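seq:
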Amino acid sequence: MTYQKIGKKEAAQRPGDASGTGRFVKTKRDHLSPLLMEAATLEPSDVLRMMDANPNGLPEAEVEVRLAKYGRNTIAAERPPAWWLLLIRNFKNPFVVVLMVLMSVSAVTDIVMAEPGDADFKTVIVLTIMIVVSTLMRFFAEYRSTRAAEQLRKMVRTTTTVLRQRVVTDAAGESRLQSDKIEVPMEEVVPGDLIHLSAGDMIPADIRLISAKDLFVSESSLTGEAMPVEKRDLLSEVVEKSVRASGKGNPLEQTNLCFMGTNVISGSGLGVALATGDRAYFGSIASNILGHRAQTSFDKGVNKVTWVLIRFMLVMVPVIFVINGLMKGDWWDAFLFGIAVAVGLTPEMLPMIVTANLAKGAWTMSKHKCVVKRLNAIQNLGAMDVLCTDKTGTLTQDKIVLEHYLDPWGHENRRVLEMAYLNSYWQTGLKNLLDRAVLEHAEVKAQLRLPIDYRKVDEIPFDFQRRRMSVVIRRENESKHVLICKGAVEEIMRHVSGVEENGRIDKVSEPLRLRVAALSKKMNEDGLRVIAVAYREFEPREGPYSVADESDLVLVGFVAFLDPPKESAAPALKALRDAGIDVKVITGDNEIVTRRVCKEVGLKVERLVLGSEVEALGDHELAEVAEKTTVFAKVNPLQKARIVKCLQTRGHTVGFLGDGINDAAALRDADVGISVDTAADIAKESADIIMLEKSLSVLEDGVIKGREVYGNIIKYIKMTASSNFGNVFSVLVASAFIPFLPMLAVHLLIQNLLYDLSQLTLPWDRMDKEFVAKPRKWDPSGIARFMICIGPVSSIFDITTYALMWYIFQANSPEMQSLFQSGWFVEGLLSQTLIVHMIRTQKIPFIQSTASLPVMVTTGLIMAFGIYVPFSPLGAAVGMVPLPMSYFPWLVATLLSYCVLAQVAKVLYIRRFKSWL
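struct:
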């Protein structure tokens, strides 16, 4: 292991230092480069020998041996942390640190420095309970959510295709090894495995290519380069003799190496795994990549609130300490009281409440067929006000059926189906829904069977730039090679020079081109997806075929597919609009089909922009266009991501729903990326949330849950902030006018502990329908305003309670301070607990909006226990005395008056600031 110093400019371009700070970066790559560079300079057969690999694949027994030797193909940073590490991490919370400091001070002052026999353990015990309760509850909530998220992630497993040998038994009972291509979980890949790659695959290990065909790989996760890189199986062309000799050099520059964590954009290939897990190039830097993930607005908002409250505490506690010391003359008691006030101002349950809300949201969403990979994405989902989605499978049924196979004149022609069938059958790349529809129709409905004398010669895989793919086949009794190409009509027609009619080939005329365009347009207007089929014959040759051979094609005809709109799409779109979410369709499909589908699902197309128009616009112009545009058609992957970014610059929280390879970049750039379990590997890896059913209705449920999570978190923050401010204000008044402490330090600690316990069930509270009816963005700027406006309301009734105890119950001397303190303890705790119900809704509590049963039960029990404390042994132990029965009618009147005034303050606040939570 070495350390290397890099500058800020270089750091910004390197995955090892996501922060771009130019700090020292720990790296474990030095041992890996010689292995990769050596593999890059060897012939494929030599690489196989070096890795002790078998051209037919590793036997299953050998795989087990290598799994035991090298471990599973997982990245350490992605594994859930050990329970003890999670527990230690929870003690690092700033609020817990404050409590630990205060406990340490109290231990020194009350125990270590106390006279023999005068040691007072009460404050230390209460603070210890608060630290343990806060930390353990947060630990259990986070531990459960971490384990639950891990289980949910296992439901969405990423697989890869490998060549393996397994033992099979024939009819005679003899066992032999048989080589098969099989799908295995990515974590089961071992060094020496032969891995098949095709479009959409995540590369599961560092690989030396054995063969490759038009293979393009996106290495942006390692290099930051947006454009895909072409990979070849040839010996590295950039390795000089000196580099070959030393084994040093940059593996990323080698065109015959592929790396874990990158993904295949197009083409196909076969490679041997060189390194897996933490030994892979990506694995060796994963801890740095994953350890410096940018904070979301949610993270920043919680942190901002945390430090606002801590700064408030650091200012107010010294003020209270000085006033009490000057007024009472007992600086020691003033010091202890200041510590208790500091504890009362510490919202130590905030991290636990946040975690519990997010964990409960993830658990609830899992029951609604949503896997949450990143907990904070739940709140971002609730804040989403623009949803960008693809068309196929979201607005449509994702069950494409082949409707027609027509010649260029619009007549049904079985030869068109045969050619399309041969193309779909022999291709080894990404078989999409269209290919499956061709195969199903040909084999099931048309009873078409593949002639056994056909052999595949070569393949030119699909990519998103050409929008077509070809296979080259031949018959055993015929010498000619036949290239069969299918793809987008306009792309095929650019390369067509002839047309087949009644067994003869004629030159394509301009009238025929116009007829073809009109036929394609009419089918598109009928909601059909049209694919052209063409071919070209070649004399036999040894070399590979390339894109250049897709020219001078002979047009055979068209296959037309129908993807009917989902019945649930229209009501789901309406529900999303009613929820304040603007839905925009971004698709690679043509504009005619897209417009027709949008019309059928009730999505008003006010403006439709093509990918060619997007390309011509600058970012500022595109942002303005995207704001007003409902549908983008015929866009490529980079344009999708660019549209998302431009919408974000306009202040929108953008969600992106997609499942294809071409959606990966947009999924990463969106505030919340949403995919489905049947999506391409790279799409699932890029998403924050994975739906087990591709439905806007499922997404709508997730949006509502996200808003509920945000609401329950903001409830706690505003309750705590306003209650803390009110308490401090009350303490300031009492400290200035009352000759003894209005409440002992231990009383404040017990009150704060009980108040915290009353709020533990907030994650299970319900939200008003009005609150979840629109997007909710994290905005901590109004918290201080809320605290100052609402907090002093409780202080009014604290002061009336002072007067009540002072004048009515004559608790106005040091001898009667226990009665005074007991009276304010009960009133303070009950008013604090009532604020839970006052703040949780902008409506009238208990009448127009009632809390959930867990919240009602918890607050009720805490209030009952608070009334009991002065009468209990606990009360006697901490210096409280039983209250006279005549106190309780006054208490009821005080609490009712408090509720009325709090409701009036709420109405005035909403009228003035147009919001509550």
